[in-house]
Specification:
Layout lengths: L5 H20 L3 H17 L6 H20 L4 H10 L8 H47 L14 H16 L8 H9 L1 H4 L7 H9 L8 H35 L5 H31 L18 H7 L2 H15 L6 H19 L3 H23 L5 H20 L3 H11 L12 H16 L3 H5 L6 H17 L12
Length: about 500
């Protein structure tokens, strides 16, 4: 079920909300959470009910592993006792206790590895099996048939969410003894299929807070406003830019200079407003239940270098890559060469996570290389004028999106070749309206405040309510040409 669909906006969301708050008002908190969990499974199954069991089994498996890991995590008191007993062998049983804990720790580490491996294998089978078969056929001239596996929606997001949970449980940072709470953490429908990628400690304490079981008029007004803003971003801006990008990438056989730049920029802004808009809709819908999801975008196209870009673009993914891949690899603690290698491996994995294709891997390589160059540049200490720094950063990001979008290498080369095609500069088949749309999207992404900034200073006002209503009506009118959320493909 899409956020930008009539069934979601006019039926599913209002009904889910009304029943949830009715049960809360009747003091049936457990029933309310059970309802919200069941509604979230229904939301997921609307796309294809065959994949609901996969999600359910994944939840049961990770919950069991997480409970086992958390139950055997050493307490602070145990760690303190070990430290005091260290070197004092005359204390009876100290060595034996340390030996038992080392054995337990080895078992916990093995269980963590098995849990992560199971999640990666599940994701790998559905998302990458045909990719591997295709490449094996190419390398070894085999004729294996592709399996034609349909990627379960949201599997990339809920897999990363649960891997993060297992690691946090292993560290003793979270402990969840309620299957209902854990299931709600994973399937809460505003974030299930599009992120943000959550941590258990970010969301579940909110469901445990009695204050969140009272209707909050500010949260309700803010939620509707943020949801409306995201819907306009998605339906009015991103979906209007989509045909321009699709023509340049998928239909045109050659592009003039202007056409190529219109193509690349239209996709850069389509992707931004599509994903940012969908995230805003998730944040807005969650606020209607008094749940605050983490921000995921912070005007990334305003960034002055590639490191800042990754602090602002898909922020929860960047956090995951940093905390669960880059730092475990060693981070920047083992010298410059190892730091550069860790950055490259992290972003190759990040690229591959986005899609089963060499263009995605190459996109990850480009960003890994850019971060390495940025670190070297910082070590040299040369300062660049801010306008130049912004221009170079934005142009790199825009050019790298070409590989992210292209279906085939030839499509990417066609667009990039057109971007330097000074022999054919004219507008060609592109309309001036396309130029105006891209220019307008540029101004909104670069010059306007983002939703994160105005949420902190939000005050319900009559004129704001009128604007929200107008935006919703405009979006509803334009929803007769629904397009999928781009990240469903990744």
């Amino acid at each position: 079920m899409l956020f930008n669909s009539y069934v979601y906006i006019l039926a599913f969301l209002p009904i889910s909300l009304a029943v949830y708050w009715f049960l809360i008002r009747m003091s049936y908190v457990t029933a309310a959470k059970l309802w919200l969990t069941a509604a979230s499974f229904f939301f997921y199954g609307w796309w294809d009910i065959r994949y609901v069991p996969i999600l359910a089994v994944s939840i049961l498996f990770n919950y069991a592993i997480g409970v086992w890991l958390a139950a055997r995590a050493p307490s602070h008191e145990e760690a303190s006792q070990d430290a005091k007993a260290h070197g004092q062998d005359h204390l009876g049983g100290a060595n034996r206790r340390r030996g038992n804990r080392r054995s337990t720790e080895r078992a916990r580490r093995l269980m963590l590895v098995l849990g992560i491996a199971a999640n990666v294998i599940l994701l790998g089978y559905f998302k990458y099996m045909d990719f591997f078969i295709e490449n094996i056929n190419f390398l070894f001239h085999t004729g294996w048939d592709l399996l034609g596996i349909v990627l379960p929606i949201g599997i990339s997001f809920y897999t990363f969410t649960q891997i993060a949970y297992l690691v946090d449980a292993y560290k003793g940072e979270v402990r969840e003894n309620s299957l209902l709470n854990y299931a709600l953490f994973v399937v809460f429908f505003p974030q299930l299929i599009a992120g943000p990628i959550l941590h258990h400690r970010e969301m579940m304490p909110q469901f445990a807070d009695p204050g969140n079981y009272r209707v909050n008029s500010r949260n309700f007004a803010l939620g509707l406003t943020v949801f409306a803003a995201g819907l306009v971003k998605k339906v009015v801006i991103a979906d209007t830019l989509a045909p321009i990008a699709s023509y340049g990438f998928d239909e045109a056989t050659a592009l003039t200079l202007v056409e190529a730049w219109i193509t690349s920029l239209s996709y850069s802004f389509q992707l931004y407003f599509d994903f940012s808009g969908y995230t805003d809709m998730a944040i807005g819908a969650a606020l209607l239940f008094n749940i605050k999801l983490p921000f995921n975008f912070d005007s990334p196209y305003k960034s002055l270098n590639i490191q800042v870009f990754w602090r602002r673009w898909h922020m929860t993914l960047g956090r995951f890559l940093m905390n669960y891949i880059y730092i475990p690899l060693g981070g920047n603690r083992r010298g410059q060469a190892r730091t550069y290698l860790n950055l490259m491996v992290t972003f190759l994995i990040g690229g591959f996570w986005h899609g089963a294709g060499w263009t995605f891997i190459f996109w990850g390589f480009l960003h890994g290389a850019a971060l390495v160059i940025h670190r070297i540049w910082k070590r040299i200490g040369i300062q660049m004028p801010k306008l130049v720094a912004w221009f170079l950063t934005f142009q790199f990001v825009n050019a790298s999106w070409v590989f992210f979008r292209a279906q085939e290498w030839e499509d990417a080369i066609k667009v990039l070749r057109g971007m330097v095609n000074f022999e054919s500069i004219g507008l060609g088949s592109a309309a001036w309206s396309s130029v105006a749309l891209v220019a307008g999207a540029f101004v909104m992404a670069i010059a306007f405040r983002n939703t994160n900034e105005w949420q902190t200073r939000f005050r319900p006002r009559v004129y704001l309510g009128v604007a929200v209503a107008a935006g919703m009506m405009l979006a509803l009118i334009r929803m007769n040409r629904i397009s999928e959320f781009l990240y469903f493909n990744f």
